[in-house]
Amino acid sequence: MKTIKTKLILFLIIFINYSNAQEIITIEYQNENNTDFPVRLKTILNCNTNNSVFTTFFGKQKKSKVSNEEDNSATISAETIDNYQVMNLKEKTLFSIENIDESIYKINEKLPLFIWQIESNETKKIDRYLCNKALVTFRGRNWEAWYTTEIPYSFGPWKFNGLPGLILEIYDETNRYHWTASNIKFNTKGDFLLDLKYNDFIKEVNLKEFVKKQEELVLEREKRIYSILPRGTEKVSEKSFRKGIEVNYEWE
Amino acid sequence: MNGNKLKLKIKINLIYYSALFLFSSIYAQDIKIIGVVKGNDNKYFLSNVILCPENSNSIISFSYTDEVGNFELKTNRIGKFILKISALNYETQIIEIELTDFSKSIVKNITLVRKAIELNEIIIAKEKPITIKKDTIIFNAKSFLQGNEQVVEDLLKKIPGINVSSDGTIKVGNQEVEKIMIDGDDFFEKGYKLLSKNMPVQPVEKVELYQHYSNNRHLKDIEKSNKVALNLKLKDDVKRQWFGNLQLGYGLVSENRYEVRSNLMNFGKKNKYYFLSNLNNTGYDAIGDINNLIRPFHFGEPASIGDNQSANTLLGLGFDTPNLEQKRVNFNNAEMVSLNSIFTISPKVKLKTLGFFNTDENDFFRNSFQSYSVGNTKFENTENFIGRKTQLTGFGKIDLTYDISKNKTVQYTGKFNSTDEKSSSDLNFNGELLNEKLKSKNQLFDQKLVYTNKFKSNKVVLFSGRYISEKTPQNYSANQFIYQNLFSENANKIAQTSENNMQFLGLDAHLLDRKKNGNLIEIQFGNQFRKDNLRSNFQLKNDESSVAEPLNYQNNLLYYTDDLYLNAKYSLNLKKFNLLTQIDFHQLFNNLKTDENTLNQTPLFFNPKIGLDWEINNKNKIITSYSLNKTNATILDVYTNYIQTGFRSFSKGTGSFNQLDASTVAFNYTYGSWGDKFFANAFVLYTKNHDFFSTNTLVDQNYSQSEKINIKNKDFLTFSSNIDRYFKPIASNLKITFGGSKSNYKNSVNNSDFREVKNISFNYGLELRSGFRGIFNYHIGSKWNYNEVITTITNSYTDTMNFLDLSFVMNDKFNFQIQTERYFFGNLDKQNNEYYFMDLEARYTIKENKLTFSLSGNNLFNTATYKNYSITDISVSKTEYRLQPRYLLLKMEFRF
User: Fold this and answer.
1) CB contact under 8 A, A73 and B176
2) Exposed/middle/buried for B623, CB within 10 Å: 0-12, 13-18, 19+?
3) Is the ipTM of this complex over 0.85?
4) What distances in angstroms separate CA A146 from CA A111, A115, A134, B559, one per listed residue?
5) What confidence category does residue A197 fall into, taking pLDDT thresholds of 50, 70 and 90?
């Protein structure tokens, strides 16, 4: 039996080309990611003027299904591959690489426009950098970003872009998602090339299709788990809500 | 997609710069600032141009330069501003400008001075609202409070990663928390909802989440644990306040029914109090509320020496109840109060106390008909039984913990229990009226001292010592003499006093060593001494005077067992295998003293065990084990003369020492896992008792007298299996269960030769449960149960149980469930072989965690009695029990 692992070999190679003296900077963010279990993930942003590749490393999260007979509880978590967000400001494109169970998707979407509120007097220092505060509401969450104009790249973690400087810290108001820069490397000069190699498992979809697929799966799993419960356990109320980074979408 | 490989290349070309970043507000009347930025080395590069008000860091407009250094910036404001131009490897330049005229464009050409970044790498250190240490995540309560939180649950809902379900179950990810502690102290264990739903949120400073949690902190990282637990750290200047909840229930349109439950708490930094009470006559076991406080059950944890030691009670009045829910069959009137406290005497010393009083009155109603058939002996008995039991229990427990240092702890636990039980029965036995009286007492005194030393990060040693003293005196009398076939004396009453007085002293040293590769070595060395004194006195009486004390019905013996043991356990973790090997050496010193003689015995033996867990792949798992186990005889196996154990039963032990050998093989196979579309599990267990205690029984209409005998070979085989299959089109899960058991042994009845007894049983069931998203859900199922006993004759029967549960969740505030059940007994006559039950539970929440009303309807069909059918190797019985009649209980629950 082929396990998911053998299918999910993805390579990310950043080639350094010294002939072009293009400034690339590499920022490592600590991500407190709290969708299910509070975890700290390593994330890395490579960017220059127009292009960025943002990687979230899920590498160590193993597929685990632990059932506990003492209290009839079960923990199910699916394996997640390293996720990527790749942006090109010039061509206004954004795609992500994510998986649902054993399928890998390349998810295309139009480069989202962030309407940042930047007129704030609030500043704080993050290490040596004076950071300005900016607010934005994006797909159902309210975000607070701290960016520094001293590093004139308009990127940040995940899909965030469009500020007059690099985002060093960003979190949503519930603190469910929180990125903080922990390491900045300058002068990694050269081109970079994202080379994704995988077998024919990758499916190219648009964001709307992907979201639909994902929700169908969650719904199905919820039904299944409720229906397997022993007698005497009752569902007393039902609230289902999205708890991912994106809570609602433009088309909804 | 083209082909098997998809390559994406993003090439960065340095020539393109574009002014994409003009997101600042653009109005009809804008002032334009345009210009060119270049370096003093004549190079063009990306730089940002920012417009700020004078003396402020806020940004009102910004732009980026393009590939040849051009920028264009717009604003709709006038006044004095500064223009800030930054680029990597160049010095930031600040230019003051004044914007006065909307019609004019301002041109600013800027040259930046090259200044290469000295550092190639910057490492940023920063404080965060969430601190993650290894296995501990600390949340600052302040960072997550939004102001509208009332109770702890409201705070936990706001904390990312912690999920609170609508019934208050708290999960981290998908795993339920083990407990919620307050400053490391715990009253509630899994009953934490009492805390989270009632405790005000203000005193909480930090919420700590522990992963891989161990109840004994020194065992962290040594024992395997998937548990998670929460700890609430209180503020240092916390103000004491009393809080809690009250549940009141009263019967509507029915006789006097009530349920009162209250919880009252007060937590300070130093002392914590928890007071609770429960009064009910709805069949609810009041002590159940505090069971986990009395005996925190931590299965398989070290330092559990003596946990399995208790004194025996020998005689019971036959207060058995059928296998139905307690609320149907328990006629009670319970009152329980309990006070619990924790005192932090110093940062290293903590005292925990618990005490409760419980009184209960239980009534029992049973009519039974038994038909015996053994060889040529055949007779029938009818019993109409009404019984009453009143019980008073007082219990106290003290835990004293002293942390000598970070790695060393001494813990003392002392327990005291006193139970007084008075029972009586009115029994119509074959037309004869019998009145029984029984007084039982239990006195327990239990002391335990445990010293834990984690002398290395992966090694811990525990020294435990325990002393238990327990006695169970019983006083029994019956106002009829029905044993004319046993005793020739002229008597009209009987009486028996009996007492088992047990003393236990155990010392144990336990070393646990978790190797780096995950393998665990455990070595345990100790000595357990137990002394039993069993006395019984059986008298035949004529009115109040004793007529005779039959010789074979008196016991007075002392039984000493001393077990010197060394256990070694090794668990080897390989990638897909987990191999457990264990060997226990025992040197026993047994001594049995009766009035007549003294016996001694010093057997030496060992018990090996081997277990293998094999995860073949993600879907297939096998767990299997084999063990050879020799057990020592207990006082109940060795006593020499008969003791009365019921109104028509007597029994006695072997009068000599025995160790019994048994081999056990177990095998479990799992396909898939819980929550998969298809999930199956099969379990088989086979035990061979190389020798075992069988019985030699004399059966007579008015008595049954059985004697333990030690014979060879008993086989027992049991299996169970279940399959879950989810069907997507109907959003329902089908569960199929199939199981059974078979046993084979020999016994002797009425001095017959050894005869073979075979017990066979099968059960199978089908269930279908929906997982709909809407208001309505159903759960329907049937279970069949077949039993057969084969001796010289064969008896068998099949029972059926069907159920249909409907659930309606109208909204967040209102939901109700209806449960119906049908029981069918294949071997009972047509008038009495079918029983229907219906129960209703409705709940209406007026304000969450503040006020809730609920209505329970019990036994809505008002089924008055319940009769069941059972078989043994000598008899067939039909027993009818009285049930709690229909009632409606209106309950109110509020927090104060």
Assistant:
1) yes
2) middle
3) no
4) 21, 15, 6, 78
5) low
Q: Which residues in chain A are closer than 8 Å to B6, comparing Cβ atoms?
A: 106, 196, 198, 202
Of B11, B128, B807, the CB nearest to A191: B11
Q: Give contacts of B773 with chain A, Cβ < 8 Å.
A: 219, 222-223, 238, 240
Predicted confidence band at B151 (pLDDT cuts at 50, 70, 90)?
confident
**Tens digit of each residue's pLDDT (9 = 90 or more) over B723-754:** 989 898 898 999 999 999 999 999 999 988 89
Span of B143-157, B355-369, B566-580 with lowest mean pLDDT: B143-157
- Considering only CA atoms, give the Rg of chain A: 20
Instruction: Output A30 or A80, whichever has higher pLDDT.
Output: A30
Residues facing B153 on adjacent strands: none
| pLDDT tens, residue by residue, B222-275 | 877 778 899 998 888 777 888 888 999 999 877 789 999 898 988 888 889 999
Question: Which of A106, A175, A240 to mutate: most B Cβ within 10 Å?
Answer: A175
Check CB contact under 8 Å for A76 and B12: no
CB distance A228–B724 less than 8 Å?
yes
Q: Please answer yes or no on whether A185 and B120 come within 8 Å at the CB atom.
A: yes
Interchain CB contact of B293 with A (< 8 Å): no
Partners of B62 on chain A (C-beta within 8 Å) are 118, 149, 164
Cβ of A115 within 8 Å of Cβ of B23? The answer is yes
Give pLDDT, residue A19: 34
Beta-sheet strand order (sheet of B170-172): B162-164, B170-172, B175-176
Of A49, A113, A119, the CB nearest to B59: A119
Residue pair B642/B651 in contact (Cβ under 8 Å)? The answer is yes
Chain B: closest CA distance from residue A80 (Å): 15
Tell me the mean pLDDT in the region A103-128: 85
- Kindly state the tokens that stand for B379: 């007779």
Q: In terms of C-beta density within 10 A (0-12 exposed, 13-18 middle, 19 or more buried), how is residue B79 classed? A: exposed
Question: Using the beta-carbon criterion (under 8 Å), do B674 and A65 form an inter-chain contact?
Answer: yes
Q: Which residues pair with B548 in a beta bridge?
A: B540
Q: Which of B11, B132, B726 sits opposite A227 (nearest CB)?
A: B726
CB contact under 8 A, A34 and B161: yes
Average pLDDT, rounded, for chain B: 87
pLDDT tens digits along B485-496: 999 999 999 999
Is the CB of B121 inside 8 Å of chain A's CB atoms? yes
* Token digits of residue B881: 């029990």
Please give the interface size between A and B, counted as residue pairs whose CB atoms are below 8 Å apart: 277
Residue A229 has pLDDT above 50, yes or no: yes
The full DSSP string for B672-713 is S-TTSSEEEEEEEEEEEEEEEEEEEEEEETTEEEEEEEEEEE
Name every chain A residue with its beta carbon within 8 A of the beta carbon of B803. 231
Among residues B31, B164, B179, the alpha carbon closest in space to that of B108 is found at B31
User: Which of A20, A36, A237 is the closest to B161 by Cβ?
Assistant: A36
CB contact under 8 A, A182 and B123: yes
The residue assigned the tokens 């959003």 is B731
Name the residue of chain B whose CA is nearest to A131's CA: B57
- Residue B140: predicted pLDDT: 83
Instruction: Tokens for A196, please give them.
Output: 């994704």
- Tens of pLDDT along B24-45? 334 446 788 888 888 888 888 7
Look up residue B860 and give its two tokens: 């809505």
Residue A187 has pLDDT above 70, yes or no: no
Q: Report the SS3 class of residue B289.
A: helix
Q: Which two tokens stand for residue B510?
A: 């336990």
Q: Any residues with CB less than 8 A from the CB of A56 and at least 6 apart, and which?
A: A31, A33, A41, A42, A43, A82, A83, A84
Worst-scoring range by mean pLDDT, B162-171, B448-457, B471-480, B616-625? Answer: B162-171
How much is the pLDDT for B853? Answer: 94
